[in-house]
Structure formats: C-alpha cells, structure tokens
Amino acid sequence: MQLSEFEIKRVQRLFENYCDDRIPLIMKGKLKLEYRIRDNEVILYESRVPYNQVDVWYSTTVARFLKDNEHNIWHLFSADRNDDWIAYHPYPNDRNIEQLISAVNEDITGIFFG
User: Fold this and answer.
1) Where are the beta strands (DSSP E) in the chain?
2) Where in the chain are the domains?
C-alpha cells in the first residue's frame, strides 16, 4: 500500500534535509546522497563521480526503509554485496522513521557507509 500524501511530504522533507546535511560542502560536486520513494518504501542511494569522468554518476544502495501500514511501523534494511536486502539487526524497526534515519547516520556496524 502506498504512503499517504501527507506522509510522502513528511518523508521528502526528512530525507532532503538528511541528504543535504550528510555530505560536506567540499564534496558536493563529487558525492551526493539521493532517495527514491516508491509505494511504501524509501531507498537511500550514495552517488559518486569516478575520478576520470565528470558527467557520469554511479549509484549504490545504502538503505531501505519499508513501511508496514498494517502495523504502522517502519523496517530498516541494509544492502549486501549482491544488493539483496537484509534486516538491520541492531535497529530493525521503529514507528518513527526519524529513529531509523539516525541509526543509518550513526552506522554503528559500518554496514551503510563502511
């Protein structure tokens, strides 16, 4: 089931702020965080420019936030080396997506950003 319009706007605001704040100003032209909302999920991507090409961006998945509308809870997943989604065990779910964004930012296991 798709997110409500209200929740989409809220999630967009949260992720735009997070993506903008996470990357240092000096790296803005070489590295960026992006997100995509589809149905009841948000996928966070890290995009970067290879050292020898300026106009090509390569993206890798960082995290997946999946909303269980029936239980009103968000689940957090990390991507493995094959881009399969694995539940993030230190902090697998929460009713508040902000808590899961904080868990990605803290990255205590190094699974999201290395």
Assistant:
1) 31-38, 41-48, 58-68, 73-79, 85-87, 93-94
2) 5-106
Q: Please, which residues bridge with residue 87 across strands?
A: 77
Q: Please list the residues that pair with 79 across neighbouring strands.
A: 85
The pLDDT of residue 1 is above 80: no
Tell me the β-bridge partners of 76.
Answer: 65
Torsion of CA 16, 18, 23, 24, to 10 degrees: 110
How far is residue 30 from each of residues 41, 60, 101, 114, measured CA to CA in Å? 26, 14, 23, 18
Confirm if 105 and 22 have CB atoms less than 8 A apart. Answer: yes
| Reported pTM | 0.92
**Which pLDDT value is given to residue 41?**
98
